[in-house]
Amino acid sequence: MAAAIRGLYAVTPDWSDTAMLLEKVEAALAGGARLLQYRNKTADGTLRLEQARALVALCHRYRVPLIINDHLELALAVDAHGLHLGDDDGSVARARERLGPGKILGVSCYRRVENALDAARFGVTYVAFGGFYPSRVKPSAERTPLSLLEEAKRRLALPVVAIGGITPDNAPALIAAGADSVAVISALFDAPDVTAAAKRLSSLFT
Fold first, then answer.
1. Which residue in 55, 61, 163, 174 could disulfide with 179, CB within 3.0 to 4.6 Å?
2. Could you tell me the pTM of the whole model?
């Protein structure tokens, strides 16, 4: 699955309206998003399960991997294509053991290549760095220099994902520095035309 980690990586907003979520996600997939991460920090367990099940079915139709943020048990329950873990989201080694070798496992490494080197020992599929630009989702996040992407590509044999305030205007610099994929929330799902925004972001990789 490592070869699939390239292009636009759509990350869902914290929406409780499942119908709207599915409509906007389908628009992003139609526009060329190559991966989808289900991330909802405000939903309860029942809503997360409902939304994740619906997104799995939608992603199967578009042949796009669905990756669950944070929640290993949810990823297993809906048979998602993978899991993404942050600093406080549990053991990477345990997640790989529970998921098995065939699932995608991504890890947020923030501003440290050493974190990525540690994660690589446990069979992660990709590593993510950021945030690179000011973000409404994480406004207080410390900025990450572009040089970190260049260092990561020199030291790691893994796909590298960039995240944090990414737009069609600033994404080219990240891609030039080595990002295999850009993870986008606001510039995609807050756009007046989600499909058009996805097409513009996706075109940067062609």
1. 174
2. 0.94
